[in-house]
Amino acid sequence: MNKSFLILLVVFVLVFLAAGCSPAGPAADPGPEKPAEEAAVVETFYNAILNHDRDAIATIACADWEKEGKREVDAFAGTTPTLVDFACRVTEKTADGNGASVACTGKIAASYGAEITDFPLTGRVHSVVRENGEWRICGFE
Question: Which of 34, 66, 104, 141 could bond to 121 as cystine, CB 3.0-4.6 Å?
Fold first, then answer.
């Protein structure tokens, strides 16, 4: 073999190996952070209100609060509600891990024809409990 060909082959192999060791570039953006399960059930409750979905309440409300949860959905019948600047986060957990408090910010803007009424959510603390292994909303203050 010719000496220059051998040197070229060695350089090629070294470059190839070095390329395999270099980082692949910036890491992919994982997207928005997923809310904690406790906060997610509260968000699902407000989405049920937006969609006028009484049936969803049976899957996300604790047994003691299901009727009240459906009343909350019914309160927005005949409106076009939207969530504005809405976010929820867990603020406290019980020692046994089966309960939590979830605070939300933002508001529901409900359109009654040409009139829009705001229902503030900021400061509202939701009680969530683990019932049959699932997180359920069980009221708010």
Answer: 104
